[in-house]
Every structure is written in C-alpha cells, then in structure tokens.
Design brief:
Elements: H1 3-29, H2 34-37, H3 51-63, H4 86-114, H5 123-143, H6 151-159, H7 165-173, H8 175-185, H9 187-202, H10 206-209
Helix pairs in contact: 1-3, 1-4, 1-5, 4-5, 4-6, 5-9
Length: about 210
C-alpha cells in the first residue's frame, strides 16, 4: 500500500474519532454522562476503533480502487433521555460531529489557501493539509445524508413532528442496507458537492490537488 494511501487512512481514522468525541462532549455538556463514564471522551484511538469501519473497509476500498475512501469509528454511546431537552439536545448532539469535521476542514483549508503567502511552502505539508480538508468535508457531507444511522437522519427527525417517528423506526430497521447502497451507489451525487466545497476552502481545483 502506498504511503500516501496509508496516511489517508490514518487521517480518516482520527477524523472519525474527532467526530464521535464531539458527539460525546456535547451530550455530556447537555446532561448525559454516558460517553464520559464509558471512557470515550478521548482522542486515544483504541476505544474508538471499529474493526470493520475503521480498518477493513478503508483498506478494502483502497485495494479495490473504488475511487474513494470512507469509514467510521464506534459510535459514542449516549442516552437521549438524560438530556436536559430531549428534542433539541438530540439535534445538538447529532450536529456536533459534522460541525467538528467542517471546522477542521476550514482550518486546514485556510492553511492550504493562505499558507504560501505566510511562508508555508512545504509541498508535503500542504498536501497533507489538503488530504485533511478533503476527508473532513467528505465525512461532514456524508453524515448529513438523512438516512439512519447517519447524523442527518437525527437532525431531520428532531425537526419533524412526532407523527414521523414511526417512519424513522422503519428506516432504522433497514439502516445497514441503506448505508451499503449509499456507500457504493450514492457517491456520484455526493462527490461533486465535496469537490466544490474543497475548491472554495482551498482555492485549489480538485484536479490540481490530485483528488
């Protein structure tokens, strides 16, 4: 496996960990200590690694030349019934992960865009920063898709009236099938959005960046 691909997997793993830890911190702040008591409010990768989602799937996608890389960490546990406000608390916890991914993308996107003007000219460092930007945009956009178990579904159903809860439960029963279909067939719709945001943040076209 090429070093650049191995590094991409490492960046992906730590990005999904940051995503999950953000869920846990917001839940803890809003009254649910489940993640903290489970030892999951840490950037140490060991408690977060999911054998399939964090290792096997990214490696499989690389080896099969799928054209994209994706994965996830173990979901941080939380109990919505402990939240001070279950409806809006659930929304806040759901949006926390993608918010962190977008913030990471913005910070490193600004480094790529303005780094050369500030004297940051190392091609390797700028390339690493570009990888971080791309993968965090990918995670943010993907998780906003309103299908269980993705965060977008929790955001959507937090905003919808209670009569839609049964629809949420029905979708949850088929969540694994829906997720697999999205991973392998939904990218042609998602990637153009990712490329567009990447270009806006970095000022670099996706073709020129190597993505």
């Amino acid at each position: 496996m090429e070093v650049s691909l191995l590094f991409s997997i490492i960046v992906l793993v730590f990005s999904v960990i940051a995503h999950e830890v953000a869920h846990g911190y917001v839940a803890d702040y809003l009254g649910d200590p489940t993640a903290r008591l489970s030892g999951r409010l840490t950037l140490n990768p060991v408690p977060h690694i999911d054998l399939f989602g964090s290792i096997l799937l990214p490696v499989l996608l690389v080896l099969t030349k799928a054209g994209f890389i994706f994965g996830w960490a173990k979901p941080v546990p939380y109990n919505p019934y402990n939240l001070k406000n279950q409806r809006w608390g659930t929304l806040a916890v759901a949006i926390a992960g993608v918010t962190v991914n977008f913030l990471i993308a913005i910070v490193f996107g600004l480094i790529v865009r303005f780094g050369p003007a500030l004297g940051i000219t190392s091609p390797a460092f700028l390339s690493i920063s570009g990888t971080i930007v791309f993968l965090n945009i990918l995670l943010g956009i993907f998780n906003l898709v309103p299908l269980p178990p993705l965060d977008g579904s929790k955001v959507l159903f937090s905003l919808l009236p209670a009569r839609f809860y049964e629809m949420e439960r029905t979708l949850e029963r088929y969540s694994l099938i829906l997720l697999v279909l999205l991973i392998f067939f939904g990218w042609k719709f998602i990637l153009p959005v990712i490329f567009f945001i990447f270009s806006i943040l970095t000022g670099v076209s996706t073709g020129a960046s190597g993505f």
